[in-house]
Amino acid sequence: MALTERELERYNRQIKLPNFGVEAQKKLKAAKILVAGVGGLGTAAALYLTAAGVGKLVLVDKETIELSNLNRQILYTTEDLGKPKAKVAADRLRSLNPEISIEAIIVEISEENAPDIIKGCNVVIDGQDNYRTRYALNDACITHRIPFVHASVHAYEGRLMTILPGKGPCYRCIVPVPPPEAGGFPILGTVPGTISTLQATEAIKIVLGIGKLYVGRMLIYEALEMMFYEIKVERNPECPSCRLL
Predict the structure, then answer these.
(1) Per CATH, is 31-244 categorized as 3.40.50.1100?
(2) Which one of 21, 74, 105, 218 is least enclosed by Cβ atoms within 10 Å?
(3) Cα–Cα distance between 181 and 28 in angstroms, integer?
């Protein structure tokens, strides 16, 4: 898949990177990444994946934009209130990078439709805020052997883990039973921005096959202490999701 002169100029600074070059940029152009939820996590991840030149980006979200979203969901403005998140995000990202394909899907992700939604993707980005949808994505990614870059945020804390089916623990290994859902939880707007850019970085590394991924480890970011630390996480031999392999 050749790069145009405009693409060579647009991506010039990352093409210059060691272990990157034109061939890596071609891999990104050929990739398809799904962002499952374009809220606090998904908007920033989608923004950086668009800027990096991922060839096809799929944005899935059923919700419309609310005023309380705007402290952290950086693709939206006050004029967008009441509009579908996926459509507004797609339009805004196209204006940033018209060289790539961006698809907006306005639907709620479920156990029934998750396998079809993620079909053909190279990576799935977790931009969700509820356990039920994360389980559905986790299981679909395991079944289809698609990497799933998980993240979650609450208050001043963010967490990140990459799930490679068959090569480490999955989401259900670390959260075997869903805790009580807490709608409208408190969140510092910069926290999802920090974690979601790391999600985008993991996705790029997966597509290019470079670097060390966050598999079998969970990264925890504490904003008040300005600290990053990690904990080791292991696969649960009794995990019903991992048994789908």
Answers:
(1) no
(2) 21
(3) 36
